[in-house]
Amino acid sequence: MVQVDVIWSYAFGASFAAASARQLSEESKAFNNRHFIRLLVYLSVYFGPSGLYLLWAFPRWETMQVAESLDQIPPWLVTLFGVTNVTQGIIGYLIGYLFARRKEYYKANLNWYFAWILFWFVLACGWDTTGWQRFLYDPVMNSYELWEPGRHNGIGFFFGPVFTSLVIMGCFFAPALQNGIVDQYYKSLRSDQETKSPTGLDHLRLVAATYGSMFGGTLALAVIASFIVRGCVSALGSMLAGYMVGLLISIVFAYFLLFRRGMPLNLYLRRFYVTDKHDQATR
Q1: DSSP-derived 3-state class of residue 69
Q2: How many CB atoms lie within 10 A of CB 172?
Q3: Which of 135, 99, 75, 88 is nearest to 21 (CA)?
Q4: pTM for the full model?
Q5: What does the DSSP assignment read for 161-195?
Q6: Cα–Cα distance, 156 to 162 (Å, whole number)
Q7: Helix 183-191 × helix 2-19 angle, to 10°
Q8: CA–CA separation, 17 vs 136, rounded Å?
Q9: End-to-end C-alpha distance for the chain, whole angstroms
Q10: In this structure, are residues 242 and 236 in contact, taking their beta carbons and an 8 Å threshold?
Q11: For residue 19, with 0-12 CB atoms within 10 Å meaning exposed, 13-18 middle and 19 or more buried, which class applies?
Q12: What is the pLDDT along the chain (283 residues), one digit of tens a residue?
């Protein structure tokens, strides 16, 4: 979707950087290495074109039910959409690279984890708390009737043409993500002199942890945050105030209960690296 693909692109760039953080820590140039080239190929050959296809084929769904047809989407917006699907990924990678160079591997992993949470939050909540309804409404399945608050296809959406297109695209995305993220995490762990050589079972655990985080853990946290925001909007009677208060509550609780060093998600993300600058300083 137009509103979230720029965030998703950033998340992919951050993910590629974190997966290769051990190797990137020894790269003096951010954009002159095979790790960046691997990301650039993914963004320009797979991710960017897929967004443009979805915008052309399903303009209502791709714009979160804002545009009724392609005629309502200005050419400059299509161009900007295509460009940012690449540039935002580069920005996510660059920030991850800077953390890697400082050997702050936990922050490099937080970079992609937070981006994935934000991606899911926009889909779940949107700008008016109806994001999930907009996402689950396939105009093709509803004879192209305009979406309105309260309408969605529910489980049926996952059997419609939009989701079928996403699944087909995922078949092409999967090998690139496997090679650019999971396999690179595995190589990073193998290159770390402080750990034993990972086994095949460790590789399978990385697969589960990586995709489980992207499509499970971050989604769950985003949904929880969306419920908090919706509750605040209802209690305060103001969309803006509800979002501000709800997001503030979500961020504070997430930091102190989950992401602070020693907390559950800090320990969970340790499976993606062995030690970082902070760990070595506290020894």
Answers
A1: coil
A2: 12
A3: 99
A4: 0.94
A5: HHHHHHHHHHHHHHHHHIIIIIHHHHHHHHH-TTS
A6: 11
A7: 30
A8: 31
A9: 45
A10: yes
A11: buried
A12: 899 999 999 999 999 999 999 999 999 999 999 999 999 999 999 999 999 999 999 999 999 999 999 999 999 999 999 999 999 999 999 999 999 999 999 999 999 999 999 999 999 999 999 999 999 999 999 999 999 999 999 999 999 999 999 999 999 999 999 999 999 998 888 776 555 566 667 788 999 999 999 999 999 999 999 999 999 999 999 999 999 999 999 999 999 999 999 999 999 999 898 888 776 555 4
CA distance 155 to 135: 12
> What single letter denotes the amino acid at residue 168?
I
The number of beta carbons lying within 10 Å of the beta carbon of residue 54 is 20
Domain locations in the chain? 2-281
